[in-house]
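> forwarded from #structure-qc
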């Protein structure tokens, strides 16, 4: 059965995406090696530990480490592989342009590692990292130069998983996008995902690598713009004294709009939406087209934290006063604070001279590494104790049931950026868009 179609897969770059993919492919029965230049990551995998926090991942690694999941800092494991996935980071520079330096290095080193193999036996190289369409060629050229083979197949298989549910998203995708330039490339990707295709029947899109890369950006840009649009409408609702969530429930019933991503609030953050939207804006602009809607989506998103602070300012002067920030992760279920909305909110409070005390169930350490000078509380109740105001920034479930903890505030003033709590008697409650 499937055992016969077991592939040898190497995943280069073992971060949020690479580790999830390596452990999940191993769980599907493939023989997988995770290659990372970070020795700590490789050591963790050798020890059977997850190098990142992601529900379900530690179990998979514990089950397969040392068996069909191996880890290495060396590229020699690429020889003899069927597929080599490139899953290293693709950050943006100051201006928002995609920075493919790490990915180009990984592509070239991968090419070099398979240069001695006969061309027909070389693995198919697959770009998993998010890159703009023009950069697909940059990465292909780097891998081809490393291998000394212009015919090397370099495919694009973008990833749509969400942090916080990465393992289940990988296992049950809505869609798979195979951007290939040969039948062999398509056959390899199909074989890699065969168990998932058989079990969950996702939509499989077969296309060329550039289109595959564009699908990823279009997906993220659309979702980010949808959130910014509902936030824009939510801001209008707030001005008119209307509850944006009642409006959203109504428009979400229209199939053409759909009910998801209509929770207006303090906006999007994380490692993907901000960088991907900026990168596609920059790439489009460089190609001669300025995407006005996407620029507006970024602008609306940038304004939401300031609107939250203005609501606070309407009720209290926070200078030399204690203010609680509840939630530091960019969304619930992760310890990732990259581009978290909590960052501009904390900075805004600092500019006002407030004494900021922050709390998050899992992400305090990560935020402390970035913003060490504020106080970090061990619980939400402790953060609220003595505060003249509280900002709710991340929709963690535990914030829904804080109830009596608000009694310990000097002044029960709450500005809710995610519609997490119900206002209590005696509390001054401001919803950002309701
Ligand atoms: P990450 O920063 O968590 O991990 C990248 C890993 O690559 C690190 O462990 C790093 O040490 C390693 N690395 C760097 N250079 C290397 C090299 N030359 N050889 C071997 N290893 C190397 O990144 P991530 O969040 O997993 O994202 C990876 C890519 O996937 C990005 O392009 C990102 O845009 C895309 N993506 C991310 C998500 C997400 O939710 N995080 C979702 C979809 C797509």
């Amino acid at each position: 059965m499937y055992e016969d179609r077991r592939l040898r897969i190497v995943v280069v770059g073992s971060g949020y995406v690479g580790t999830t993919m390596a452990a999940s492919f191993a769980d599907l029965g493939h023989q997988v090696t995770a290659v990372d230049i970070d020795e700590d990551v490789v050591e963790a995998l050798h020890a059977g530990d997850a190098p990142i926090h992601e529900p379900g991942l530690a179990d998979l690694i514990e089950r397969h480490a040392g068996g069909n999941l191996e880890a290495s800092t060396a590229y020699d494991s690429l020889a003899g592989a069927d597929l080599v996935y490139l899953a290293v980071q693709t950050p943006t520079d100051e201006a928002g342009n995609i920075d493919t330096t790490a990915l180009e290095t990984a592509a070239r080193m991968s090419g070099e590692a398979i240069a001695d193999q006969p061309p027909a036996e070389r693995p198919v190289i697959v770009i998993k990292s998010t890159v703009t369409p023009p950069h697909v060629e940059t990465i292909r050229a780097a891998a081809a130069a490393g291998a000394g083979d212009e015919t090397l197949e370099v495919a694009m298989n973008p990833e749509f998983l969400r942090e916080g549910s990465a393992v289940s998203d990988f296992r049950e995708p809505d869609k798979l996008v195979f951007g290939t330039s040969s039948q062999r490339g398509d056959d390899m990707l199909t074989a890699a995902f065969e168990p998932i295709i058989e079990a969950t029947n996702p939509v499989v899109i077969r296309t060329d690598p550039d289109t595959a890369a564009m699908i990823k950006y279009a997906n993220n840009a659309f979702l980010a713009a949808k959130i910014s649009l509902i936030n824009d409408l939510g801001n209008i609702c707030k001005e008119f004294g209307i509850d944006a969530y009642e409006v959203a429930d109504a428009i979400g019933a229209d199939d053409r709009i759909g009910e998801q991503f209509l929770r207006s609030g303090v906006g999007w953050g994380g490692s993907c939406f901000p960088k991907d939207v900026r990168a596609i804006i920059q790439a489009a602009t460089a190609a001669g087209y300025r995407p006005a809607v996407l620029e507006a989506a970024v602008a609306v998103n940038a304004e939401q934290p300031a609107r939250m602070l203005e609501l606070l300012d309407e009720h209290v002067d926070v200078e030399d006063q204690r203010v609680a920030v509840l939630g530091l992760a960019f969304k619930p279920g992760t310890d990732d604070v990259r581009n978290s909305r909590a960052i501009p909110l904390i900075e805004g409070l600092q500019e006002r001279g407030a004494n900021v005390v922050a709390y998050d169930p899992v992400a305090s350490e990560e935020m402390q590494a970035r913003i060490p000078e504020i106080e970090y509380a061990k619980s939400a109740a402790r953060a609220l104790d003595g505060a003249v105001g509280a900002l709710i920034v991340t929709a963690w479930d535990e914030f829904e049931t804080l109830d009596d903890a608000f009694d310990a505030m000097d002044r029960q003033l709450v500005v809710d950026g995610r519609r997490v709590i119900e206002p209590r008697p005696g509390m001054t409650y401001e919803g950002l868009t309701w």
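QC bot note: Residues 12-18, 35-38, 41, 87-90, 102, 105-106, 129-130, 159, 161, 163, 271-272 surround nicotinamide-adenine-dinucleotide (CB under 6 Å). The chain has a mean pLDDT of 96.
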